[in-house]
């Protein structure tokens, strides 16, 4: 190698030392940076230890929802009407079912796994006599779920079905038989309408629950239910408590590996309520209306307590809790007697002759003399047509008392004309018609009380004067629910006090019944109407005379109401006052009247008149008002009156107003926290 002239040659040894020094410096720097990074990371981890511990636990633990028990619904004397009971159910873990059919050393294909699931589910179906559609649906559910998650197969098993499966569990790989909690209605059809029922939450319910701050996993819980009808729906926020939770240990895939998670939060029970209903009377009313399409309401005329709120035919709400089958629901929905329809509050009927006392009160208030009389030849000519009385030959000379007792249409045609439609409407509203009373159930009907303003708004043009005659006898456009007719009857019976109905008596800080205020009605006019209603049930010629005799007496010393017998001979009789009604559902033509109006029994069922009866008792010391409406039952005196008389008789003998009602504080003194 040549060297430049004048430049000394480099020392190889020194060059090597310099290179080593440079490398040592770089390595030391890199080491310092590395150790600094590690130190910084250690410091960061230490500083954020709580955050990372929480994230670690979040990945390690999972929350399992515990559904809360719903509040119990009791009758007024403490009989449980809706409870939380044990539910027997089956579930399936797909991977366990599939593993039982796996061949060692071979990987299962998706088709083989589904065949295994189908075989297990089919075995369960054979044990419980379930159809092929059920098998298909459950296999589909298992296919969509994670392989290690339990899939619900069947709820609501009977004890016999549960035992049948338990005996065969070793032959059913992946199937679990366990218990949960479920809503139960021990008296099935008796309270289907006032109490209603619960069902699994749908998407709309889920959205509402999210709005209430509940976990989305709650509405997927097999025990989660929401109210869908009656009190269960309207008071859902009270009756459904707050869900609890428990922590379980899971792996990275979410599979539960241990139940020892700790930190269990118990659920909060829903609020329990005492209702105003009397179980013995409600059950008797439903039994008495068996086979009819009917409604019955029994009400305390001073407190407003609804002792009976019965709609027939009923249905079994227990069938809805775990999901009613399509054919069964169609049968209910297509039944001409409308078992799913709450006739007491949602039904709107022409009140017929039960409205005539209101017409009389309106006419008297408008100046009609108390001794006013008309001659009834069987019709009233007006506006170029004849308005007929129900008695073809007429009633002859009639005053208010006889007109109510014998239900003379012609008298009330004249009274309605004297009052005018606006006065009729005002008096009807005073007695509770045209008002939707809040009794904590959905679908409460406000009915129709027509007047001139209503006609102009709905039909247009001036009010036709002839319509006043129809409204005066409870026909035409006027409509009322059985609940409203019960309020009307109660206000007649209590001397014109503005009593309002209620269905919940105690619980969740419910206030006591308010003292009803006076409606300011003329007491002489009220007494005339009351005396006319007395004549209906207790005087010859009264349209309900045959059914107004209850065979009851009052003990002269204790005041207790007893059945009449040889031992009670001489005791004063217990009497009721009432009014029959018949509401037409078809138009009777002039030609039919000329040939003779067809009898109800000669018509097909849907064309027959509705039968109504309203009453109260005891007449000398009123306490209860009763209303019965029988759809297409024919005449009120023949069909509705006997039912109402039997219900009233039971009520007077039982006399629930004289007995101390139950309270939540006494019924559930040791209950833990509950929603109130």
Give a brief outline of the structure.
About 35% of the residues lie in helices and about 20% in strands.
The CATH architecture of the largest domain can be given as 3-Layer(aba) Sandwich
Would you state the CATH class of the largest domain? Alpha Beta
> How many structurally independent domains?
2
Low-confidence spans: 52-59
Measured between the Cα atoms of the first and last residue, the distance is 103 Å
Strand element count = 22
What is the third-level CATH name, the topology of the largest domain?
A: Beta-lactamase
Q: How much beta, percentage-wise? A: 15-25%
Could you estimate the helical fraction of the residues in percent? 25-40%
- Global shape: elongated
Averaging pLDDT over every residue, what do you get?
Answer: 88
Biggest sheet, in brief? 6 strands, mixed
* The CATH fourth-level homologous superfamily of the largest domain: DD-peptidase/beta-lactamase superfamily
